[in-house]
Amino acid sequence: MILDVLVEPDPRLHQVSRPVEKIDDEILEILHNMEETMYAYEGVGLAAPQVNIFKRLVVMDVEQVREGAEMEEKAVSVPRKAIKLINPEVIWACEEKVAFKEGCLSVPGHYADVVRPAEVKVRYLDPKGNICELHGTGLLGVCLQHEIDHLDGILYLQRISPLKREMIAKKLIKAKKSADDPAT
Ligand code: QAP
Ligand code: CO
């Protein structure tokens, strides 16, 4: 089932999500729906609070953003498979910082450079309950940090310059107003 994605400004996006205590059918179903939702909206990552579920769950698929002909070949030959992370935590971040242009399904149509550690190590549970570790660099590293931020109620807008944040915030409010009231 494709779920509705919350769009900023929405106080629910700033809520802290709770750890998952037991991986049961409900959790697996949520992860499945999150995966469908991410693909439906052509995202590379989605965190549960973005779909109004305040549990520490993330789905990601950074493969689909690979560019060029090679990618098209892969896209048909390799079925898409999202990584599903339960209770993910950054357990190590490198000193070196890099800027990366980020977007977010909860901030549609806006992109901005965000400075973050270039590499991170993340520990999480997979859907079978195995403890896993992922070393992320490049887009994967950025995406892991961006999605884990969502679980703490943090949007990338909170990590950019206040001036740029204000500009995007105003546009988002305007967009919401005209969506609520198409006459104006
Ligand atoms: C987070 O974001 C991310 O505005 C995932 O109109 C983004 O999937 C991590 C999207 C960039 C690393 C780098 C955004 C889709 C998708 C939009 C997304 C839009 C349609 C964002
Ligand atoms: Co996001």
**Which strand-content bin applies to the residues?**
15-25%
Evaluate the radius of gyration: 17 Å
Order of helices and strands: HEEHEEEEEHH
Largest sheet: 5 strands, antiparallel
| Shape verdict | globular
* Strand line-up in the sheet with most strands: 1-2-3-6-7
* Average pLDDT over all residues: 92
Query: Which hetero compounds are present in the coordinates?
Result: 2-phenylethyl (2E)-3-(3,4-dihydroxyphenyl)prop-2-enoate, cobalt (II) ion
What are the low-pLDDT stretches, counting only 5+ consecutive residues below 50? 65-69
Tell me the number of strands: 7
Distance between the termini: 33 Å
Helix run count: 4
Structural class: alpha+beta
Q: Percent range for helical residues?
A: 25-40%
Describe this entry's structure for a reader:
With 184 residues, this protein is an alpha+beta fold. The protein has four helices and seven strands. The chain has a five-stranded antiparallel beta sheet. The protein has a two-stranded antiparallel sheet with strand order 4-5. About 3% of the residues have low confidence. Cobalt (II) ion binds next to α3.
